[in-house]
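[09:14] KT: can someone run the structure on this one? pasting the chain below
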Amino acid sequence: MKQPLPDRLRPENLSEIVGQEHIFGKDNFIENLIAEDALPNLILYGPPGTGKTTVARIISQKSDRRLFKLNATTASLSDIKNIISEINPITAPNGIILYIDEIQYFNKKQQQSLLEFIENGKITLIASTTENPYFYIYSAILSRSQVFEFKPVSSDDIKKAILRAIKCLEKEDNIEITISDEAMNVLSSISNGDVRKALNTFEVCYKSTKTENKKKNIVFDNVLEKLSQNSFTGYNKTGDDHFDLLSAFQKSLRGSDANASIYYLAKLLEVGELTSICRRLLVCMCEDVGLAHPSIFPQVKTLCDIAMQVGLPEARIPLCDAVILVALSPKSNSAYIAINSAMKDLHNGKNYDVPRHLKNVHCDSSNINKNDNKKSYLYPHDFENHWIKQQYLPDEIKNKKYYIAQSNKTEQSFEAYWNKIKKSF
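[09:31] RB: done, structure tokens below
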């Protein structure tokens, strides 16, 4: 039985890895470090199918070091100790490389157990993770390692991998293969930057295409249509994928780009992020639209309530209404700035007592005459325009201004109204 196509096509050199030119392109310094026998510990961070495991294998071969592989989802501390026990000049004359896949699943104790051997040079650690290493990997490991971020592979680079696969299969099966531009475009796009997934999908399509006179014309529209329905299978609801997608959604809303907002809404809907969508919409409505268009508050809240009540797939319709409303509304973050400024003052020690005349006279337990306190407070509704000048902030910050009106119709109308009222004082 043949190995899967991605395994048969694994690159033999770092320069053959597609899509990571920022690491292995021009002036590939990792190859220089291998040549100088100065390879550091490495943390390879990025989504699946971008070449992390392949890089560990190539580095092991090029540096002539024995490679041990562990998967942190199933490995234990005893597995690490067993590998360490095999280190000796006979079995590993040039040292060993310990490759730990998905290292984020190791707990702190397991990660700490590696430190002694990293520091004394007995092993060179290469660890891969699909999650942000600065959140999941013990800081002492990070400080002794170089972190490289692997990026999702572009559609153009995935096409290069597919063309390499075609040449491989033509040679193996003594057959001529042609592929339509449309099929190539769909294949490269539904893989979501995952070369392994693209090659596996291509192999399925290749095997499902009939052979005629030692030729295969790979169009496979029906196969691709079925396979493209599962294009989100690599999505991680608890990892970076989740937060990156939500971040893009909220930033597109804030940036008033309705088209991008709808696109990210669609992606979030595909993976069932209904509650997260509503939460981000409500936050963005208050933080970014704010007082520039406060009349949308009940509208967006109602649309989110409808979405939660009807559920998917129908929820997509009220949510798209809400997204367009938030994206295209005028923007103001004056309330966001104001409350952050007030909280910053509190955190910086500006926690002052409430002015005497504003205290609750019914609950005041001091010995001062409560009637004096009551008389000192001026009830605004007793005065013209329901306003009278008096101090509300504590003495220490009595002239502090937290709220600054921004240049939108609603806030400017508020400011004009109160400027007119207060001019008489």
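[09:33] KT: thanks! The first strand starts at residue 41 and ends at 45.
[09:34] RB: yep, looked fine to me
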